[in-house]
Design a protein that fits this description.
Layout lengths: L2 H24 L1 H9 L3 H28 L6 H16 L5 H16 L3 H33 L4 H26 L1 H22 L8 H20 L1 H28 L6 H12 L12 H14 L3 H29 L4 H4 L2
Helix pairs in contact: 2-13, 3-4, 3-6, 3-10, 3-13, 4-5, 4-13, 5-6, 6-7, 6-9, 6-10, 6-11, 7-11, 7-12, 8-9, 10-11, 10-13, 11-12, 12-13
Length: 342
């Protein structure tokens, strides 16, 4: 069996185990009973908001590509971002596992170099951390001013504050030492790529100079994005709209079940839940649901069945939509495992 397919299969099996354990503990019958009472009109709103979220982040990708000199239409950018999300959703470790495939998708759709696609998706992912942290801090501040934080909320608040501190510090240090990081990356990655090239049948190992040029091209592209302040501001604006869309999706999922809660709840829960996306489960499937349910119970006081039903609606829209649309886009672009190694 192919190694990548094996890892994906194991990842999905692990996700099913986590989801199965969650529904077993809560009670699948109780969750289905709550879901049966959901208002159809509001569920349609959840779908519309999910489309708006995907569109906003697709436009963020288009903005970054524009800063790199690559042109792509707005509709295609949204479809390609859906395809990138699809890659993240079907590979272990979320974005870390899906970015190489996402870069290939982007380079094909925008007719640009692979390094440009990789720099674009890496930049978009990095930019997405900024508004998510800001929104989470707003939500935590609201809760700190209105209620006494429980143990789960204290954990969420600590996670948000930790990210808020680590993000600017890491960005500053990374930018200050970017040339050293580039040199170290070349030293480490060149022998790895050459070794991998020797294992591919009927292909010669890539030359060290060619690999060095490609790695330098990636860092140069990232540098270009960081230097375009207008594009950065616009991309951050689209990213912010996307996060608000995700928070609205969760809020509407609760509202569909007859639960009205402070919007600040979703502003805290969504970014913290996204952290679970780095687990070795495809798209964080299972881990994200567990975290979201736990935080919803802690922040809203709803019972486990209602929280699980709301998360099921939210994730049904924001996980399945890009997976289905993105999978179709990836197939249309003709991305196969053979192409990904080309």
């Amino acid at each position: 069996m192919d190694g990548d397919l094996r890892a994906t299969t194991v990842g999905f099996l692990g996700a099913l185990v986590v989801l199965g354990a969650l529904f077993w503990f809560v009670g699948i019958g109780d969750v289905l009973t709550v879901l049966s009472g959901a208002r159809t009109s509001v569920l349609a709103g959840v779908g519309v908001v999910a489309i708006a979220w995907l569109s906003a982040w697709g436009l963020s990708l288009r903005t970054v590509l524009g800063a790199l000199g690559a042109t792509i239409t707005a509709p295609m950018a949204v479809l390609v971002y859906a395809a990138a999300t699809f890659a993240n959703n079907v590979t272990p470790f979320g974005q870390a596992g899906g970015e190489p495939i996402s870069a290939l998708l982007i380079s094909r759709a925008s007719h640009s170099e692979y390094e440009t696609g990789l720099a674009a998706i890496a930049s978009v992912d990095a930019l997405n951390f900024v508004p998510s942290t800001m929104l989470a801090l707003v939500g935590v501040s609201y809760f700190a001013a209105t209620i006494t934080l429980g143990r789960q909320l204290e954990f969420a608040a600590a996670a948000v504050v930790g990210i808020a501190i680590a993000l600017p510090v890491g960005a500053f240090l990374g930018w200050r030492h970017r040339y050293g990081i580039e040199a170290r990356a070349i030293d480490v990655l060149t022998p790895l790529f050459q070794g991998a090239g020797r294992l591919v049948p009927r292909r010669s190992p890539p030359e060290a100079s060619a690999l060095e040029a490609r790695i330098e091209g990636f860092f140069t592209s990232v540098d270009r994005v960081a230097g375009d302040r207008e594009a950065l501001a616009l991309a951050l604006g689209f990213s912010l709209l996307g996060w608000i869309g995700l928070a609205t999706s969760l809020w509407l999922s609760l509202f569909a079940l007859g639960i009205t809660t402070a919007f600040a709840t979703a502003l805290v829960v969504i970014p913290v839940g996204a952290i679970a996306g780095v687990t070795p489960l495809p798209g964080g499937l299972g881990g994200v649901e567990f975290v979201l349910v736990t935080l919803l119970v802690a922040t809203t006081g709803v019972d486990l069945a209602t929280a699980t039903a709301a998360v099921t609606i939210h994730r049904g829209a924001t996980y399945m939509l890009p997976t289905v649309v993105g999978g179709g886009t990836a197939a249309a672009l003709g991305v196969t495992r053979r192409n990904s190694k080309a």
